[in-house]
Amino acid sequence: MSIGSLNLFCRVRFWWPEYLFTSMKTIQTWNEISENGAPVHSIAYSPDGSQLVAAVGDKVYMINTMLNEVTKKLRGHKDTVYTVAYAKDGTRFASGGADKFVIIWSNEGEGKLKYSHNEAIQCLAYNPNSHHLVSCATSDFGLWEPEQNEVKKVKVTSKILCASWTTDGQHLAIGHYSGVISIRNKEGKEVSSVVRKAPIWCLQWNPSREEAFEVLAAGCWDQTLSFYHLSGRQLGKDKQLRFDPCSIAYFSNGEYICIGGSDKKASLYTKDGIRLMTIAEESSWVWSIAHRPNQNYICLGTNDGLLNVYQLLFNTVHSIYQNNYAFRESMTDVVIQDLVTEKQIRIKCKDYIKKIALYKNKVIAQLSDRLYVYEHDGNEEDPQYRLMEKIMKNLECMLLVSTSNHIIQCQESALHMYDFKGVKVREWTLDSSIRYVKVVGGPADREAILVGLKNGVILKIFIDNPFPVQILKLNVGIKCVDLSASRMKLAIVDDNNQCMVYDLKNKKFLFQENNATAVAWNSEYEDMLCFSHNGTLSIKTDNFPVHQHKVAGTVVGFRGYKIFSLQMMSMNTIDIPHSATLFQYIERKEFERAYQIACLGVTDADWKLLAVQSLMGLNFAIARKAFVRIRDFNYIALINKFEKQIQQKSADEQLFLAEIYAYQGRFDESAKLYVKAGHPEVAMDMLCDLRRWKDAKDLAAKNENNQSINLRDLILRQARSAEEDHDLRAAADLYQAGNEYMKAIKIMGEQKWLDNLIDLCRTLQPKTDARAIATCAGYFRKQDNHQYAKEAYMKIGDFSSLMSLHVEMSKWEEAFDLLKTHPEFTADVYLPYAEYLCNQDQFDEAQIAYKKAKKPVEALKMIQKLGFNAVIEHRFRDASYYFWQFAYETISLNKPTSEHCNVSEEEKQDRQAKFEKFLQLAKLYYVYSFVRDYTELPFNSTDIRHLYNISRYLLMNITTETPYNMSKVSIMLSLAKLSTQLGDYSNARLAYQKLQTLRVPKHMRDEIDVQSILIVGKPIANNESEAPICYRCSSRNPSLNEKGDRCTQCDHPFVRSFFSFDTLPLVEFELEDGLSDEEAIKLINIDPVEDGNSSKSQWREDTSNENVQTLSFDDPEPVQEETMNGGNNGKMIIDPFARALLDLSKRRVVVDRAMLASFHKDEVFVVDWGETQVKKKFYKSTIPEIQITRCEACNSFFHEEDYEFEMLKGQGCPFCRTNNKQAATEEPQPAT
């Protein structure tokens, strides 16, 4: 190792890591080949970049970008998919293609919605600020949003090729095959247009919100790229591409543009259209290109079915000279920034910049095939750099540095120097590769360069001298070199990451540190340097230990308290306070050197520490300078006071120290010294000013004999003063300390200081301060702080207010716990609880709560609203159940056992009317639910005969106005189809004829027209087995009766099973005058006496033969009774009830006591709603062999086997959902 001489004047640092030799490159990170080589027409990323969707052939690929794999291949389209687009919230995306359909998918790949155009879908675009979707076809475009039920379509005169929304989502640009660019508002109205001579195949608005106005980039098939304003005005001239652009995408928040097309490449351009580089070369046309949001990834889709993802790596091109830092921005601009003031000057080179060199007032920019030399114009107010020279040579190099009048290029082990005309002046060939270059200054044309070589040699080269001078030789390669401010010390970092410091004057080795990557001296302090290693910056000062800062990056400069650090690709200015070094000098009592360190840059707290320590050390000069720096005039006045007392020899040492302690914040020591000096009142004033009330009280207790101390009066006086000065927090504390609790509570409550208020509340006594505690609770309640309010109310035992608090803040569990011990609050709890449950959609629990609150009317309103909502949502079976519940609960209010039965007769009649109306609605919606399932669902398990009966039942019961949301078209169409299947062609013809008079939806018209023609060819004869029979008059009825569901002969209403809806053999009868319902029921329940003329058949068993046991059935001889005409030649009547049935002269069947006594109770059914306003109805089965049962809750009739089967399934009554247990109690099951 040897050390040579070094004579330097000024210096400029250039540091170039090897990884910055290449400024930009691309890496392919993932690729996928489509099935059968299908073209990739369109691609789109989700807003967070986690998912990529691609239009590949007739499928939509879903790709997880985190795992780089295809997760799904969606097959919703029947033809080629041309376009995909992702919504702004990332929850859905859309696809469209040649099958003329647009499909809205969830981000999980589930199809949500589908609509069509008349031609193939060419492109899709989601609005970036809303859920609006524009879908563009050949001759029109559509605007869709989730809130609308239809797609608004706008006709156009030319085929649409592309579309894009502006950043604010207010305007839409559409590119046409005719070369027109149409700019429209979000309602679709055209506001401006641009006309070109070739198709506009791709366009995109700049997504950056930092631009002054919206800019549209358009790719035209005249092989140009052009830019336009929102008004349609062109920005600049056309940029020649030399290929047909097929896709365009902005990159890096609008800083760059990626374009792919017929040249089989994806190329990178600036946002102004200047070509920078080729991202990738493919084997066929690049149809689609997309940028992954917030990342430097680009995805390409090609015509031969390739999906490729590339990562773009940008390296920083920069140079540094003293405080000035030059770096490349947007690939074509040079920005010169003052690292101290952060002021910037921009140079627009309008070409791809490869290298930058900065020296004094000159900037050298190496472009793609030439070099530009710029010079500062010297204007201090508006500084600019002007172009000085153009060197039209392609001078490729590894490193580029500059001096006053020359350019120096580094090539491996050689340095080449050119003047600003491009003429080569000198060349130095060195013994080893160059690792480090630094221009260390000097006169113009005689500057010196400090060079570190790979073989460990450090050279000094004067540019006017062809011979380098060796100043130091190490055994390992050099990574970094720097000189101290006085040029007397040299710091080196070698390849072993050892930082070594040498004294060049005395030729001595001074210091060594391991694991260093770079080093820099502080240009403003001789004995301070910084070196970086392992994510830290270490500062070494004098002979003190190294002080470290956890800051990532590599140090390249050190000036005062600012360290210039290169972190990856950016230069950072880091402020490093020299507090540690300052503390070390203060500990040594070296206040002068500590002051020099403070001048480099420390915090105000460090300045104050230096000032105070200097003051305590009686170094008034340094103390005064430090206090002047932090503008602490009180301390300056104190220093003046001390100096004056010292001059007058009247200084009291204890008071002197007490005041210093007080200024330092050491108030305990200060108070003790004041008391010791005989001035306790001064200590009291100080403690009161500091709000240290406890210490003040302790001091007062210790000096209670001192008449000048009255603590409470002093506290209250200061409290009022603080309140007048709007220092409310201090005022509240003072009022509390002075036992003025109400004033303190008022301030804390109005200022919402709840934590302070609860602390005060906890100190109060319930017996003496109940009013204050209640006031605290009121403030807590006003601010919705349940826990604090509860604590306050519990403390004073105000359970009424506590219950009100629980209810108000929806703390129901605590309210019910309190209700267990205080049942008098039942009504106050359950009514608001029911309203709360309604808001939470817990309607079953709300109904129970309303009942417990004795508010059945509110429960009825809730049930009615649920029913109407179910109808609106087409949940007709739920609507039926809710309407049944409403009817049942309404009529239950009239029951004698009800608490609400004591109302006027008019109100009872109104309840009865509502009961009948909603019961009928419940039945109709229940029946209609089967029809809707039959017409809407692809599969249906209901028997077609049941559906046939249901359709007829609905048509015969809807005689006036059709209930809301019930489609008469669906009912009639169901009847027509079912009649055709069952051979009832007459009804089918009638149904199709009626359908012609109704307003039929468009999608049903063709089917109805075809079926109307086909039914004409069916036989005229009907299937008579389907015609209903009246069990009162035994006459056969037509399938449909315009007067309703009743017999056309005797007008007897049909009774139907509410499962199969076929006619049951039940006949309604009425009681004769004078016969009450109760007496009739008693007679029915009496078993009839069997006589010899009984029509019952007899079973006989014969066991005479011991080997054979015989069971025979014998019918007795019938007994003739008189006929209706008085003779015995007519039909034999064996039953008085049957005689009454055939008496058609009476509209209703009337029975007497004898008939009732002869009835078997199993054959008679009583419909009883348990309320006097609703008359009981009596029915008798005319065919006892048919087993019939009645639901005890809803009084609906069923075939017994059907009803029992439904019960076994656990679903309860098919109509009212009531099971046997509920039927016994006559309580309906709450709706679910």
UniProtKB/TrEMBL annotation:
All residue ranges annotated as the IFT122 first beta-propeller domain in the record: 27-212
Chain ranges of the Intraflagellar transport protein 122 homolog TPR domain: 579-969
Region (Disordered): 1091-1130
Residues making up the signal peptide according to the UniProt record: none
Pfam short name (any one): Zn_ribbon_IFT122_C
Protein name (Swiss-Prot/TrEMBL): Intraflagellar transport protein 122 homolog
Keyword annotations from UniProtKB, A to Z: Cell projection, Cilium, Repeat, WD repeat
Gene Ontology biological-process annotations: intraciliary retrograde transport; non-motile cilium assembly; protein localization to cilium
Primary residence: other
Gene3D superfamilies linked to this entry: 1.25.40.470, YVTN repeat-like/Quinoprotein amine dehydrogenase
SMART domains: WD40 (SM00320)
Places the protein is found: Cell projection, Cilium
GO cellular component: intraciliary transport particle A; non-motile cilium
Residue stretches making up the IFT122 zinc ribbon domain: 1023-1067
Segments forming a coiled coil: none
Sequence ranges assigned to domain IFT122 second beta-propeller in this UniProt record: 318-571
Ranges for the WD repeats: 74-106
